[in-house]
Amino acid sequence: MSRATMRAAVLCLLAWLPMVAAAAGSGYDVERYADAGEAVRFVQHEWARVHYRSPEDERQAALEALAEHARAVADRFEGRADVLVWEAICISTYAGSLEGLSQFQAIGLVQEARDRLLEAEAIDPEALNGSVYTSLGSLYYQVPGWPLGFGDADQARAYLKKALAINPDGIDPNYFYGDFLREEGDYAAAEKALTKALRAPQRPDRPVADAGRREEVRAALARVRERLAKR
């Protein structure tokens, strides 16, 4: 076994063990779902509740438990792009909550999330209205680059543009593209994308997610406009 392969195996093990422990007390039951669609809807709503509404001191543990549940859902409903996308979203959101030395574990988690998204792309690249590409793009600009991670601005741009080609008016692809442009220092283009995200149509079945995302859009837009005002 090469040193790189051994390191990847260790990272995967570190990522897996705490999730197993969290699942024991989560109260989630993967057998409750009649079909994959019901499972995806539950995970969507639970992710929004945990990510945007749970108390800060409880959020990381709740995200960890939800990530493990999403894994179990993916094991039960194999070969479903929408299930894989939400598994990746839950895992990467949990990874984003880790700090300090736990960030080494986070790198293993986001690598796993990327791999799930690539599996989903191979099954159905337009699943969930382009969420495969929105999620891949967001990972590629937020994850550190080599040697720690796989982050790559060119890849991020390409994936986010694919997402916008599928869902040009959606809040998520416009938000992540705008936030990516903000990080790249293209503030004028970022303002345009974020303004479009703020005007995106409401999703009647995802009110909590929409409300939380709009807060993130407003915060990013405020930072962009502050930069533009200094020019």
Written account of the structure:
The structure is a single chain. The protein has 231 residues and is mainly alpha-helical. The chain has helices at 3-24, 36-53, 56-76, 81-96, 103-123, 131-142, 153-166, 171-184, 187-198, 207-229. The chain has two domains: 1-124, no CATH class; 157-231, Serine Threonine Protein Phosphatase 5, Tetratricopeptide repeat (Alpha Horseshoe), CATH 1.25.40. Helix content is 75%, strand content 0%. Helix 2 (36-53) packs antiparallel against helix 3 (56-76) and helix 4 (81-96) packs antiparallel against helix 5 (103-123). It is globular, with a radius of gyration of 17 Å. Mean pLDDT is 90; it is low at 1-25.
Any key phrases for this structure?
231 residues; Serine Threonine Protein Phosphatase 5, Tetratricopeptide repeat; 2 domains; 10 helices
